[in-house]
Amino acid sequence: MSIPGTDRKHSKKRDAILAMVKSTGSHPSAQWVYDQLKADIPGLSLATVYRNINLFRQEEAVVSVGVVDGEERFDGRVEPHPHFVCGCCGRVMDYDAPELPPSFSKVMEKLKDVTDILRDGRQDAGFVIDYRKTVFNGICSDCVKKVKTTA
Amino acid sequence: MSIPGTDRKHSKKRDAILAMVKSTGSHPSAQWVYDQLKADIPGLSLATVYRNINLFRQEEAVVSVGVVDGEERFDGRVEPHPHFVCGCCGRVMDYDAPELPPSFSKVMEKLKDVTDILRDGRQDAGFVIDYRKTVFNGICSDCVKKVKTTA
DNA sequence: GTCTTTGCAAACCTTTTGCAGCTAT
DNA sequence: ATAGCTGCAAAAGGTTTGCAAAGAC
To answer: Which of A87, A107, A127 sits opposite B118 (nearest CB)?
Structure first.
């Protein structure tokens, strides 16, 4: 007898799903992961992608960035770091991505401080803080260009 | 002729829905708003709550805090400010709520700085930043107590 | 052989939408 | 009278689940 879900058997599909989430910088949805892998693994099912991503989440191998346009988006980079979400095309980017404005690095520094303060105070008043998510919403440079061209 | 949705007529139900979102500190879902108002407005429909919240969102009278346990949560306090979300009971709290640890005020200060930096750099490299969302995930003191009592 | 994993399809649940009737102006 | 607003029920769309077959050990 054991705690349910504790005995884990090896699965090639599970490996492939985790590798895909970890290796992409696209902060993918389950559907996106499925679409990418479907070509190489014809027998794959979307339900399997969901089931395995939920496993990864439990063991903290993957985190959720949040829901964008109705789809949950995931990240294989699990330590807290800020994201930029384009409200136009739905793209999710790491805040330290090379395409983003250089002034944003100042923001990064401040947020590092925040994390440090939190680490000290995380048990105050009986609260437990597990994680921080910071998301900047806006319009990415591609979409800004598109709008300017159309108008 | 006019831009669709521009001509707005007065509606008591709309007023009531906005007032409910603005007056509560619960960061409610559409369903919660509906449940609260249903007693006073028997003819109310959930679809009307959704439709009106979406209007408020467009005119930025209300913002989304994010999706918690599959339900979108809203806030009538529209200026960016951090939130705490309990992963156990789903409660959403403002980060400056009196129940929260005093050390958290240091975090608040840092995040104010972040907002200032952003305001300066928001148009760099063609990007436009509209909004910032910071969420701290953890377990609220009530749920920590519950777990300790049970164990 | 036993227990885990998976595909398929159905179920679930929140949110959106079409339409006919109602309300505000 | 002319729009906009609402209730109802149906549809939509992402995610979960039951079950029997396939796979890992």
So the answer is: A107
